[in-house]
Write a structure and sequence with these properties.
72% of the residues lie in helices and 0% in strands. The protein has helices spanning 3-14, 18-40, 43-60, 70-89, 111-122, 126-137, 142-149, 153-171.
Length: 172
């Protein structure tokens, strides 16, 4: 979506235009959902949090100042929704329920090797694991990860490097 078009839709949504907000939702839904899925690893929970985030965004669209991109604002709302969910649940998702989407790539020859990789990722320190998942598995740039996680871009790179080192040691 072109920035001029998005800005026009934002202004219309601020005036209560549901169709304009619906178009913004369609434009950004997949990216917000991917952010939620990367954090929780559960498609149903990610869907619920994404829908709740867009509902909250609709209710507070008038407060959007445009200091950051709309997508960043939406992802921040989704992040806050997920944090609230996990606080209520008092626990993070069990690593066993996470589908890391490891394919049947030729470079990963056996089911046993894929399981070894999943176990190694599961054993990573929490912050390094989240950065690794966002970068390596979901394709986020370090700049996006930094904004999403509320950390410096250099910290994202350092956490990713740390995760890679730990994985290389664990899998050697």
């Amino acid at each position: 979506m072109k920035p001029e078009c998005e800005q026009s839709l934002i202004e219309r949504a601020k005036q209560g235009d549901r169709e304009a907000f619906s178009r913004l939702t369609r434009a950004h839904y997949r990216q917000v959902y991917a952010s939620c899925l990367a954090v929780c690893g559960q498609p149903v929970l990610a869907e619920d949090c994404t829908q709740e985030a867009f509902l909250k965004a609709w209710r507070s669209i008038r407060s959007f100042r445009g200091d950051s991109s709309l997508l960043h604002w939406l992802r921040r709302i989704a992040h806050n929704v997920m944090v609230s969910h996990f606080r209520r649940a008092k626990s993070w998702v069990s690593i066993e329920s996470v589908d890391f989407r490891l394919g049947t790539d030729d470079s990963i020859a056996s089911t046993e090797q894929r399981l070894d990789i999943k176990r190694a990722i599961a054993a990573l320190p929490e912050k390094a694991k989240r950065v690794f998942q966002l970068y390596a598995q979901y394709g986020y740039a370090h700049q996006e990860i930094a904004r999403l996680e509320g950390i410096a871009e250099g910290t994202s790179k350092a956490q990713y490097h740390r995760a890679r080192q730990i994985l290389m040691e664990a899998l050697s």
